[in-house]
Fold each of these.
Amino acid sequence: MNGMQLEIELLGTGDAFGSGGRLQTCFLLRTPAGPLLLDCGTSCLVALKARGEEPNEVGWALITHLHGDHFGGLPFLILDGQFRRRERPLIVAGPPGIGERVTAAMEILFPGSSQARRRFEVRFEELREGSAAAVGPALVRAFAVEHPSGAPAYALRLECAGRVLAYSGDTGWTESLVAAARGSDLFLCEAYTRDKRVPYHLDLRTLLDNRSRLDCRRLIVTHMGEDMLAGPDEDGYERASDGLVLRL
Ligand SMILES: [Zn+2]
Ligand SMILES: [Zn+2]
């Protein structure tokens, strides 16, 4: 990989409930500085190991919102690192409160694990809407979206290795998506249903109705539920699939 190419492996492209047998949301960016995760659903560690990736090399995890299918893999990633003598620091960046929520999840799932001695640092950074933050190799901007999850939920826009990647986890339609996608090489976006409106989620129809307003070179939909997966392809977008590798 040269410095001006960004490779993205879609490790998990499913919804929260295993529709289509897909893994939960998790994308791996191969950056010049090392691997970065974008969302970290509970199946993250399974996905990494199934694809021959070394979880201990992941330097950063960027999280859109604090639902289990987007951040629930972190306790497993951290604990696996502890048991396998990870040394590389892990930077976790996401909505305000992310440190407390990950710590609480660790204590529920593996009591005592959040306080265990580790050889590596886990550092939490809170992303604020509207301001750009440098997270390792990426410049990250957070856009508030509509998806209650006990903390602000974001769409994220990353500038990395000379490319722009926009990504929305879960949300009802909001104009924030237009802003987040503007000028991007790729916009990865949820399409949970085909036509049915589900509160705080996005349907393909609404997304395509706004397609001309989304200034992105490619639109790839992910986080698909059963009816989206069962239906035919249409023009105007591509579908994500587990294991798909993209080069921007
Ligand atoms: Zn989700
Ligand atoms: Zn969610």
Amino acid sequence: MKQTSFYPGPSTIHPSIPSLVKDAYDTGILSVNHRSSDFMELSFAAKSQLRSQLNVPDEYDVIFISSATEAWEILPQSLTSKTSQHFFNGAFGLKWAYTTENLGVEVIKSPCDANESLPTDQINSLGDWLCVTACETSNGTMVDQNVLQELFSRRLPHQLIAVDATSALGGVILNFQLADYWFASCQKCLGLPAGLGLLIVSPAAIERGLLLGERSHYNSFLKLVENARKEQTHYTPNVLNIYLLWRTLASGPSIEVTDRRLRDRMARLNSIIQSNGALDWLVSDAYLRSPTVITLKISDPMELKERALTQKMILGNGYGEWKENTVRIANFPAMGDIQFQIFMEWISNL
Ligand SMILES: *Cc1c(COP(=O)(O)O)cnc(C)c1O
């Protein structure tokens, strides 16, 4: 029997992928030039599907890139004149701050505890960008959309907001109007093989790009936007993943349905955790927990992982400072309800 991976990315992919890969091959789309009308139609179809399924505002641009890490670079490279403020409570948010620093941008680090809400009262007037990680995959926290709303209301007129939505996009409802630069890679909540990133940007972000006029890199923001508006890319893109994105979204439910389904699974797991003495949430405040990455405290994570493996279940290691005392479990949409149920029954009988 095949193992079920609850690793939070790369994770279990949609079960329909093998047949969709064959479809992609059969249609011939994998062999066409990325300047051809066939590719342009695919690009349009995939983006339209994404827009309607995830409620992306019409005036926002959707751009294909190759990873979230690439989006970390594009922001300081093409869209930041001087300073970037980073709010974070875990490893991915910190890496983003380092990436920005390494590109010569001044970084204001505003860390907080995993059990605290994002300190929206600490906005520094020097920041061109306020950077937030929607779901911190390393510890299972989430910035609620109401907190993002607070940041949005408190920002100064020259400040834009960037959100790393890698473990959120496709899993939870996002209000895109609350930020200007959203990005994700596809191997988390979108349930695809790795190697495609999405950038979703507001008119204000485009304006900022035009103001700075940076064009010296292969992935300079303005080049990305100009090509995306023609349904093209200036490098050869991951056509297979774009095809898979389109088809999996087209056969999937709306984000409202998915969001409810994940929160419902999370609530059922919560009642099991509460009656289990060996396991506890890393994030004690339920309001701060991500519905997509479940992080549980346990005294011996290795032992739990080994026991899970005998049941053909792969649990995720803890990450960074939580490596020795947590396990992580992906509650991503591509994971079937039946597999999740099997996992919960196993947990409840520990
Ligand atoms: C996985 C992850 C990334 C990195 O994604 P890549 O596809 O490896 O670039 C960045 N941010 C968060 C929050 C993630 O979970």
